[in-house]
Amino acid sequence: MGRAGKKNEAQSTNQISDSKFQISYPKEEKKRIMAELSIRERQAGDVTVLDMDGRITIGEGSVALRSAVRRLLEEGKKKLLLNLAGVGYIDSSGIGELVSSYTAINKEGGQLKLLSLTQKLQDLLTITKLLTVFDAYDSEAEALSSFK
Predict the structure, then answer these.
(1) Architecture field, domain 37-145
(2) pTM of the prediction?
């Protein structure tokens, strides 16, 4: 019985340390993922500007964008300017989320425009022919004055 007690104690210790590992790993992973896309919201008159920094990718990046846009629509904010100057990478899911956001806002009678596309993002939107769909601007003042 002494041996069985030791074995159970060892298993118990492993389970605790496994449990600690499982608890700490998701927190570290969550920090990394949450840092993938940060969105700062500000008002410029009746236009809501979303300053984005990071990556718009499948998972947290595109979910963060979707959540922000849907929440703003629910609040009645229908003029959105997405400042993409800090977005270094966007995958197909991110492109899909931009299109989905554009569609949702247009359906509500609003407008979504893009600001400060990186060369990489501009090339991607050109290749996919989406640059003809989105209004994109280099200057925030020009973008803001373009809203009706």
Answers:
(1) 2-Layer Sandwich (3.30)
(2) 0.76
